[in-house]
Amino acid sequence: MATDIGSCEQSEHKTTLRPVIGLTENLPKRDLEQITIQAIRTHRRLRNAAEARYEEWRQSPAVAACDTVGPARIAYVTAMIDMHAQQTVLSTLLDMLGHVPSVPAD
After folding, report:
1. What is the distance, to the nearest Å, from the Cα of residue 101 to the centroid of all Cα atoms in its chain?
2. Domain containing 93: what range?
3. Residue 44 within a domain
4. Structure pTM?
5. 48 lies in a domain?
6. How many folded domains does the chain comprise?
């Protein structure tokens, strides 16, 4: 497909988790909202953990070994993977719910 110079065509690519949809599609909205609120709280916890692992990594001494990035960076990468996986769960639930429920700070 041809585009004019200066125009930008972006395809919308959104990842959803079909198992989450299948498990929750017939739930009452009230129950789905409770599950979504728990997912928000889990995401916040994982985000905080990832931020802490990042600070630990940044403050850790450099690793001299060529075959590893070191335990602090591995912990950070693992925490980020967990957080992003949860974000996909949360995004799927929010799409199904149709709104972002109010969740007080912990």
Report:
1. 17
2. 26-97
3. yes
4. 0.81
5. yes
6. 1
